[in-house]
From TrEMBL:
Residue positions binding substrate: 85, 134, 178, 185, 209, 261, 279
Protein name, as recorded: Glutaminase
Pfam families hit by this protein: cNMP_binding (PF00027), Glutaminase (PF04960), STAS (PF01740)
Xref: InterPro entries: Beta-lactam/transpept-like (IPR012338), cNMP-bd_CS (IPR018488), cNMP-bd_dom (IPR000595), cNMP-bd_dom_sf (IPR018490), Glutaminase (IPR015868), RmlC-like_jellyroll (IPR014710), STAS_dom (IPR002645), STAS_dom_sf (IPR036513)
Length: 624
């Protein structure tokens, strides 16, 4: 929604539904860059491919795509141009995927050549220096050709389209122009053939290469492609996993060392963002876990890099301190909260003797809430906390609901920690993870003894389960109580037998089946209930559980104070309860003010206890 608005702030029919009328500062920065650098007319159009001379030297587009898929676009970001050498990075990734790392390594090196992109020199063992120069890129096309033959180019086109998130086409005129004039690349290819780097069909391989260079993209496409690399191989706009994180790291490595031809060293030193340029005027730059940038301006410097594109990259890196080697991430922010259940309980309301056990042994349940993506450093930090800091609770809950991902190294370290804890008799519960999630799959695969590891989708359910264990261990476990006497109701505490009998007389016995809704939020509140047997849950209309209640507890008692129901109450099991209509209760109160006072005092005490519990939770939430 935001992206659309930014692109067409004045277009009719687009109204901003929410939010301030301000523009994100990054957009303002990109607009400023555009305004400043468009005035720079230095550099020249590539002319060794005749068709490229027809480019409009004034064209200048910038696009930036964030990891969450937001697209910023400025200037001629939708103007198509040929991808040229920018394709090399993505075709290298494809070659790795298709023939594997070993085969690629045997064919192409990864050392910077220090020479121009079209250098004809090979390494001492007669391989191309790296896949970012023409020799290496042609060798990549050769590898793909060996697998796919005639289908090789279509395979390349499809892969690049996935990176861009749309179907890409070819500029036939540029392709024809380079085919007609590309004798230097032909010389390189035949040299590679001489050293058996390429198969027999040299012209067919060259055609794959020429065609891939003539694929049409926009600055926006390049930004999405770069953002896919920055996002561990997942296209942040389409959500498609295009390539593995392992291959992403290899690809970004060669982009860093050789992506800007014989300017690569200077580039990494000054800008520090893995990038690749092409003679069509495009540059992609991918900063892992931050952004993908695509620029287009066909005026090139002496290294054949786009003049204005370089300037945008330099300005962005300098202004926001984006050099990839200047990262910071403090592992200590990964633990959001670390507490035992003192004053914090699950939403299951307990019988008094059960609550007493929980109060006495609150430090036996430790809850650690994690936040952010977990990796080697953060899990190491968590494991040291567990090893060194009490309480050594026999029940440990680690909450993952704010953890989107865990790296293989993180999962391994955590698995080892959990296995060791299991051997020490600790039961660990991971909450906030679905059975099908990557986090659960990773951690479970690395934990040797799964018997001491549990999983819950909700933290509240995990705490309830741990509480049950504790109550059971300390002998307080009473399976769902058969029934409760009306005298146990907290609302009726201190009433004598006659008063109690009078209340019962005003009430009607009700039965509900499991799953049946007893109270619905929003309905008029005109009665209250005394639960005699079974369990009910109080839930917000959103489905969030506020409390689970058992025999001897009341619900709907807020009706005494409020006109309409604020939550649903649903029977979890078959339920019997007494329903006391408010109007008869009101008559009774008028006739028996003394009893009424006791009930109102009890109600105040119930609400006060609830407030104390809520305050403890608010305190926990706001303390971090
Ligand atoms: N640097 C480039 O963009 C070169 C690509 C171009 N197709 C060539 O091989 O000459």
């Amino acid at each position: 929604m935001d992206a659309q608005l930014i692109r067409s702030p004045t277009s009719a029919g687009v109204t901003r539904p929410t939010g301030y009328e301000t523009k994100p500062p990054l957009r303002r920065f990109l607009v400023d860059c555009y305004e400043e650098f468009r005035a720079d007319h230095s550099g020249a159009l590539a002319d060794y491919i005749p068709e490229l001379k027809r480019a409009n030297p004034d064209h200048f587009g910038v696009a930036l795509v964030t990891i969450d898929g937001h697209v910023y676009e400025v200037g001629d970001s939708a103007v198509p141009f040929t991808i040229q050498s920018v394709s090399k990075a993505f075709v290298f990734a494809l070659a790795l995927e298709m023939v594997g790392e070993e085969r690629v390594a045997a064919t192409i090196g990864v050392e910077p050549s220090g020479e121009a992109f079209n250098s004809i020199r090979l390494t001492n063992d007669n391989r191309p220096f790296n896949p970012m120069v023409n020799a290496g890129a042609i060798a990549c096309s050769g590898l793909i050709f060996e697998v796919d033959g005639k289908g090789a180019f279509e395979r390349v086109r499809r892969k690049l389209s996935q990176f861009a998130g749309r179907e890409l086409g070819v500029d036939e005129a540029v392709h024809a122009s380079e085919t007609a004039t590309g004798n230097r690349n032909r010389a390189i290819a035949w040299l590679l053939r001489n050293y058996a780097v390429l198969p027999d069909d040299v012209d067919a391989v060259l055609d794959v290469y020429f065609r891939q260079c003539a694929i049409l993209v926009t600055a926006r496409d390049l930004a999405v492609m770069a953002a896919t690399l920055a996002n561990r191989g997942i296209n942040p706009v389409t959500g498609v996993q295009v390539i593995t994180p392992h291959i992403v790291a290899r690809t970004l490595s060669v982009m860093t060392s050789s992506g800007m031809y014989d300017y690569a060293g200077e580039w990494t030193y000054r800008v520090g963002i893995p990038a690749k340029s092409g003679v069509g005027g495009g540059i992609v730059a991918a900063l892992p876990s931050q952004l993908g940038l695509g620029t287009f301006s066909p005026l090139l410097d002496a290294h054949f890099n786009s003049v204005r594109g370089l300037k945008v990259c330099e300005a962005l890196s300098a202004r926001f301190d984006l050099h990839m080697l200047n990262r910071n991430a403090d592992v200590r922010t990964s633990i959001m909260a670390d507490y035992d259940i003192y004053g914090i309980s699950s939403r299951r309301s307990r019988q008094p003797h059960e609550q007493q056990i929980l109060d006495e042994h609150h430090s036996d349940i430790r809850v650690i809430e994690l936040v952010g993506a977990m990796n080697f450093g953060t899990i190491d930090y968590v494991s040291r906390k567990l090893a060194n800091e009490p309480p050594n609770a026999p029940l440990l809950i680690i909450d993952f609901r704010r953890v989107p991902d865990i790296t293989a190294a993180g999962a391994e370290l955590l698995g080892e920690t959990l296995s060791a804890l299991g051997n020490a008799g600790v039961t660990t519960i991971l909450s906030g993870v679905e059975a099908a999630s990557v986090v659960w799959a990773g951690v479970a695969a690395c934990t040797t003894d799964l018997r001491r590891l549990r999983r819950f989708t909700l933290l509240d359910d995990a705490i309830e389960w741990a509480e049950d264990q504790l109550i059971y261990r300390f002998g307080g476990f009473t399976d769902v109580r058969e029934s409760a006497h009306i005298g146990e109701q907290a609302l009726l505490a201190d009433l004598d037998a006659d008063e109690m009998a009078a209340i019962v007389k005003l009430s009607t016995m009700r039965r509900y089946g499991a799953g049946q809704r007893i109270i619905a939020a929003g309905e008029p509140a005109n009665s209250l209930f005394f639960l005699q047997s079974g369990m009910v849950s109080v839930k917000l209309p959103s489905g969030v559980r506020l409390a689970s209640l058992g025999p001897g507890m009341e619900f709907g008692e807020m009706a005494i104070l409020e006109r309409s129901r604020s939550a649903d109450v649903v029977a979890d099991t078959p339920v019997t309860c007494l329903e006391l209509p408010l109007d008869s209760f009101a008559d009774y109160r008028r006739l028996h003010p003394g009893t009424a006072l006791k009930i109102m005092r009890n109600l105040a005490a119930i609400l006060a206890r609830r407030l104390v519990a809520a305050n403890a939770k608010v305190d926990l939430l706001s303390a971090y």
